[in-house]
Specification:
This protein is of the alpha+beta class. It contains five helices and five strands; from the N terminus they run H-H-H-H-E-E-E-H-E-E. Strands 1, 2, 3, 4 and 5 form a five-stranded antiparallel β-sheet that branches.
Length: 188
């Protein structure tokens, strides 16, 4: 103890010299701890993604079979890519006019709309104006829904028809409807 009192400066220098490696060691350990915690949080972020990918790998054959089944069903619902756009438009217009006519509606106007290309499909539309009874409209919409390749009713506007009734005519309300239908054609 006597030496420490008489050589304070030397004691401080020796103490600091011994303390300096300890501080460097603690600084390195805190750096390593930060790197460890960063790596651990990175692993925790990646683990769910790896688990999803592993699930896909485990069920790849079942997913391929399901994809093939969906592809075959889609091909039943759309016009094939081998059919020309103009041919499909004309066929769609003719078929929808036939369905509406068989249901008892009279088609006063039909127009093929411009083809819209979106994604893997071409959207082919037809706009029709019809006149008839409400039950005939219901029947025609059921016929359109049953038709394959799939025909979707994009818009439907119904209003009462202006007609003068004679004495022998029925009291059934006549309507005028503007129907816009669309069908898909595979683009690729």
């Amino acid at each position: 103890m006597k030496w420490l009192r008489s050589h304070r400066r030397t004691a401080w220098i020796c103490g600091m010299t011994l303390l300096l490696p300890l501080l460097v060691y603690l600084n390195a350990m805190s750096g390593f701890w930060g790197m460890y915690s960063d790596a651990r949080s990175g692993i925790e972020r990646v683990e769910p993604r790896v688990a999803r990918l592993q699930g896909l790998i485990d069920y790849v054959e079942q997913l391929r079979a399901a994809s093939a089944a969906v592809d075959s069903q889609v091909l039943e619902l759309v016009y094939p890519v081998t059919d020309d756009q103009a041919t499909v438009s004309a066929a769609l217009q003719t078929k929808v006019r036939d369905i509406l006519g068989k249901a008892g509606l009279s088609v006063s106007n039909s127009q093929v709309l411009p083809v819209r290309a979106q994604g893997n499909f071409d959207y082919i539309g037809v706009k029709l104006t019809v006149t008839g009874s409400m039950p005939a409209l219901d029947e025609s919409l059921a016929g359109i829904a049953a038709y394959l390749p799939l025909v979707l009713v994009e818009s439907l506007e119904v209003s009462p028809a202006r007609a003068v009734r004679g004495q022998g005519e029925s009291e059934q309300q006549l309507i005028t409807a503007s129907i816009q239908v669309l069908s898909l054609r595979a683009a690729q």
